[in-house]
Amino acid sequence: MTATSPAVTSRFDFAYSDNGRYGVCLRTTADEVALEWWTFRAEEAASQTLLDIAVSRQTRALPLDEGGVILLQPSGTGSSRRYDVVLLRPGGPTCSAQRLGEIPALDGYLVPSPNSAQLGFAVMLDYSEQSTIWRLSASTALIEPVVRVPGTLSGYAWLDVEAGILAVNQASNSYRSSGIVIDLLQGSWRRIWSVSDTSTDRIVLVSPHSKLLVVATNATGEERLGWGVLGEQNVSFPQTLHRPGYRRQALALDDCGEHLLVHEAAGAVSRLFRYTPATDRLEPIASPAGTISAASWNGDLIRCRFSAPDQPPTLGTLRLGTEPRWSVSRDREFDRQPDWAGAELVQLQGPAGPIEAIVYGGPDWRTSRYLMVALHGGPLASWHFEFDPLFQDLAAAGIAVVAPNYRGSTGYGDEHLRAAIGRWGGPDLDDVLNLGRSLAAERECLQLPRPIVLGTSYGAFLAVLAAGVEPELWSASVALAPFLSSSALYESAGIAVRNRIEKLGGLTPINDTIGPRDLLNVCESLSAPLLLVHGTGDDTIPVEQSRMLRRRLLDLGRIEGIDFEYLEADYDHAGIALAWPEVLRGRIVRFCLAQLDTSTCLRSYRTSVATAQAL
What we know:
Shape: globular
Helix content: 10-25%
Low-confidence stretches: 1-5, 602-615
Radius of gyration: 25 Å
Number of strands: 36
Largest sheet: 8 strands, mixed
Mean pLDDT: 91
Distance between the termini: 45 Å
Strand order of the largest sheet: 29-30-32-31-33-34-35-36
């Protein structure tokens, strides 16, 4: 894979101005993060990279209706963490930057202003587990606190523009949430949307024109979308909007508030629908195979983040009409198209039914010289049909990749989804081992190296389990930010992770011939080399989980550098398990090629010995 200049590998955190004329996002090229400013005219979209503005993955950006951009720029760590508030004026040969002030906070996000009285608002999480909303202005009083609310706030929707009534979602220490309204003029707040004391209830969207209110709740065990009208008591959760086992999200409302853009994760791909509350009608919208998110809807134009296996994330534009028309935007300088590998969706036979997988390597992937089985995080997650820098690097090195959405993956119905609840390392592990047996047997006949198994987060836990339970199936294993067992993770993780473990039945033991799903036990059976990677800043799965596994391997007499490789890096959980920086991807590719080449040499040697003995 070659390119004349660094190519875009990701775009994320898309945001759009209320009038639909401008957008912003963060973009990465070779791990360098830059800010992109977008201008929209009809179906055309043009981007300008603001290279003179230093940003990071934690930067928050909000485009304004007149073309300006507000930034929240983080600095410091721990109790010294602060955010600079900066006003940008892009559009010319240079971008002017005006620093408005500084806010001490752990995290935060931006809300656009409903009028010209101020630039916008910053919703910031304080160190005392409370949130403060700050008014941002370009006048002499640049930043001032407006109201303080207990808990963590997320999202926003203006209920009454003139009166300054804002709806947000408030999360408590138990990490359940409910919808509240805040009177920014009076500095008061009250709860308006809560189904139960144990459910996660959110206000999703509000139309100031039709007063349509879109909400969500998981009170029934699976998140459902509903709608009502501001000022009325009834909220409807129509069956039309719900498909068990397939997550549906409300992305945007049209200008009049009469139609809702709905996204469904249908297996590995995205599907779009237009829902009309007045008639309870859900109409599919044709879209290319890929993943879609972060949408805005102005007039008959929908803009969204779009990605496909051979298309790095970019801006997609859909013009509605009798025949919807799609276009994909590319920056002339940075979106030069390298020879990205394509992928296909295939159906694999599993022990309980078909399993969809994303496959790189063309129609002959099964007979590729090198092959990897990649396991996603979770549980209750899935691989998506989108651009993946790691898979691209593996494909460029000649390694075919099969990424299965085994039982416990989202987007395949309720039965497939719930198979892993209360059975961590049960049906999902069965599916992985079944696939490993099939591939290993095929490759044994063809005298090809056995596959490598790679996993991230929960998938890393599964990968080491698979490599320890049936070590004869694999040439090597790669574990990116694994945990040792659900109980070990429960003891060391934060409250959000512990709540998720409880909710998904992670502490329920499985009684079968395999025994406890504990990597400290199964690692005794590892025979193939292991690459173990963890981030020192991981507050989801603490790095001590991997350190304990390393110590156990050393106690068993395994030699670091020969039997296993261990790497710690200065990243958080997402940096190791999701973002995959270039240096990490290179390390993974080199490890895989070394192990597979060694496996090929050993196979040739054994074949030669067997032939000589037969003679």
